[in-house]
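Dear colleague,

Thank you for sharing your sequence with our group. We've completed the structure prediction you requested, and as agreed, I am returning the results in plain text so they can be pasted directly into your records. Please verify that the sequence below matches your submission; if there's any discrepancy, let me know and we will rerun it promptly.
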Amino acid sequence: MGAVRPAAAELIEASLSRVALDAHDTQGVRPGLEALAESLVQETGLTAEGFQRAHDGIDDSLRRLAAIRADCRLHPEIRRVQIAPQVFILGMPRCGTSILHALLASDPQFRAPLMWEVAAPSPPPDAATFDTDPRATAFDDYVRAAFAGEWQDVLKAHPIGARVPQECGMMLETAFCSANPAMMFRVPAFFEWFLHTDTSYGYEVHRAWLQQLQWRNPRERWVLKVQEHMYHMPELVAAYPQAVIVQPHRDPVTVIASISRLIQVIRSNSFAAQDPVALGREMLQLWNHGLVRSMQYRAAHPELKVFDLSYRELAADPVKTVRGIYEHFGIEFRPESESGIRRWLAENPADKHGRHTYKLEDYGLTQRDVRDVYEPYMEAYREYM
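Please find the predicted structure tokens below.
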């Protein structure tokens, strides 16, 4: 294992000592930080490099939270920013959420958080320099250096680059109210905590992020996405009561095979060995928790504004599918909306970084295994499968 790991309490205090957070934020991040630190310390499969990567991630999340809070103290007007109307994209992974996010973000009326600005949010991005900000170049340099070797396969499944729309999870992660660590590392105790905690503080921080990014670079509306919103719909709706939701659907048999391969690759830099069968079982249940909760919430709240769509239809005719979203919610589909979407499609073919290949049996699963778990979801949304 190499170097002796610090105790969880030691890790937490060391990380908190490196940033200037007020009492409110220190109290807000502590429950999730404690759950994550305990899980990481107990995970014996992590290599020394993997544990250090996790520790660095904790420090980075705290640093980014401290940065946006410091900017808000320096510029109190950020707190007065009225957040533009929001479209949230959610659903299972690998069902077209990232493509939809990028397609809507290619329309000039929409604003999506970009990867470079979520990685380095301070000072607040400015429309006047947004296209030439050196932080974008620095992020692309990081991607070229980091995504080498086996990690190159991540790019086959999920686009990564300075001007690629970023998931909300990277903002919720700064509040330690995100499921992201359960993707990067095997931390079941942390994920169990995430399932049962109240993430209202996370959405408070999420709103602070949107104010930070919108202040000097606004658009008419936001387009936001991450699958983990499904797990905490009450907190999402409480934070954004006027939000509308888009949910694409795809056969879970394909989804579970694809996400299992992606998570295996993501974790490869942190674990000396992985059990693909155990990973398949983990992924099989992990995503079902979110679907069950979102289905229950939707059933109890028929007033929720949701547009369901089929991944098959999105893949077959992206422009028609996106136009359908606009029509459903009464959003104007302008000439520049269509030209932006078509430009993105031309510049981002499906196999731009190579083909993402996967087989369900590689993870000890059968189609029957998946359908036994996801049968209620598949029955409810059969017309979209």
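Summary note from our side: The domain at 8-384 is CATH 3.40.50.300 (Rossmann fold).

Kind regards,
the structure core
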